[in-house]
Amino acid sequence: MKTQDSVDSICQAIEDRLLEGEKLTGHPELVEHVGSCLECFRTMSELRELPRIAEVMRGGAVAEAQAKDPGPAFWNALPERVAAEVLGSRGKPQVKVRRWWAPAALASAGLAGAVATLLIVYGPKVPAPSGFTQAKTATKTTITTTTTTASASASAPAAAVTSPAALASSAESDGDLTLGDLADLSATELRALSRRLTQDETAATRALTGSANDSSAEDDGEGTALEKLAGLSGSELQRLTQSLGLELE
Amino acid sequence: MQAPPIRWPSVMPQSNEATDEILVRQAQQGDRAALTELVRRYQKAVYALCLRYVHDHDEAADLLQRTFVRVMTKLPDLRSVELFRSWLFRIAANLALNYIRDHARFVSDEATAAGPATPPVKPIGADRLEAGQLAAALRHIVDDLPTKQRMTLELRVYEDLSFREIGEALGTSEGAAKVNFHYAIRALRSRIGTVDELVGSKERGR
Fold first, then answer.
1. In which residue ranges of chain B is pLDDT below 50?
2. Left, alpha or beta for B204 (phi > 0: left; psi -120 to 50: alpha)?
3. Which end of chain B is more exposed for a tag (fewer CB within 10 A), N or C?
4. In this structure, how many other beta carbons lie within 10 angstroms of the beta carbon of residue B155?
């Protein structure tokens, strides 16, 4: 007695053969099965016409293709056309599609960046009264300041900016004004300060220009000023020397 | 299949010609001669496939070129070179189906403007059909089949792909390809009856 699995496999074998367009005449066991299996009999009936259907379909396709054949010139040219297009595009770098707004956005971002840089570098700065380093530290550490502190720090630089000569004098006298503060002054203020120093305060001028011959200057407060000069960044030095009318090597 | 598959001119390599696999590997390396040979070998079969879908020479020619450009552009990514043929037909069929989909609205509008659509195929058993008419009637019925059944039937009948290749071409299993094929034949039979009966009725009518 045949198990269900073996029956299923026979049914499958019959269907496979019929789908391939084969006949079952050479397989008596399959023919016998078809005689007793309604499902396989139905499958065989459905697929019996397959070879003839395929034949008719092929005949029609060939006739249609021949009727609408583009001609030998087309067939000869197509392979070269395809090769030229494909191999040509393979050698080229892929062009990235750019949106219409991309250049405008890029230009706007660049412009904004340039303006921000100019504002940071050349914009009005508020020198802290207690020194450049302390002012920076204070800026970093005290984000929220009281109104009185803000007004005090605003009034102090205002006085300093309006009177560069006074700044220079105070620098000599008590040493509260550092060279870092000088670097934060605007170009006009620095020029005024330079003029004043050149005309009236030869000692201060010597200190600022770093007179190496004066050995005693290294021992007192001027030595500290020179060290601070050396500690200035490149841009600060450049600005300072430009303002003082000096040539930087 | 007992009936021989269609031998499109230049499709099947002669005994002394390089096989598809060799040509595909060479074309993947940028060999122009191999690439053009592959196009030459399959251009008529692909054209016939496109023509069956779009029924227009110019559109079929355009689809044919687009198919090969796409296939050859992506050829370096094809790992299973033995699947080139089924892959090629799959891309062609997909492009043709996309074309039909994209133009469906236009065609529908045209048909509406032109008047009633082509009358449906009559019960063929009652007709007297020439061989060409029978083929046209079959063609019409095949066009109305569900897409997968239609593609399975055509790839099997026209391109002689195995069910495994059809499964790979259509992204289905071999078993699903067999089922689709069986359903397609069943649908054809239910519409046309038996071919011998039709041809016989014509012959008897003479």
1. 1-5, 7-10, 115-128, 205-206
2. alpha
3. C
4. 25
Q: How far apart are CA B16 and CA B37, in angstroms?
A: 14
Instruction: Report yes or no on whether pTM surpasses 0.80.
Output: no
Question: Residue B178 in contact with residue B106, Cβ under 8 Å?
Answer: no
pLDDT in tens, A169-200: 444 444 455 556 666 677 777 777 777 766 65
B48 touches chain A (CB under 8 A): yes
Instruction: Annotate A175-203 with b (16+ C-beta within 10 A) or e (fewer).
Output: eebbbbbbbbbbeebbbbbbebbeeebee
**Greatest pairwise CA separation for chain B in angstroms:** 61
At CA B160, angle to CA B88 and CA B201, rounded to 5?
130
- Looking up tokens 């020397």 gives A241
Q: Is A140 helix (H, G, I), strand (E, B) or coil?
A: helix
Residues in Cβ contact with A5 at an 8 Å cutoff, skipping those fewer than 6 apart: none
B42 touches chain A (CB under 8 A): no
Determine contact: B73 vs chain A, CB below 8 A. Answer: yes
Interface of B with A in 158-197 (CB under 8 A): 158, 163, 178, 181-182, 185-186, 188-189, 194-196
DSSP H or E stretch at residue A155: helix A147-162
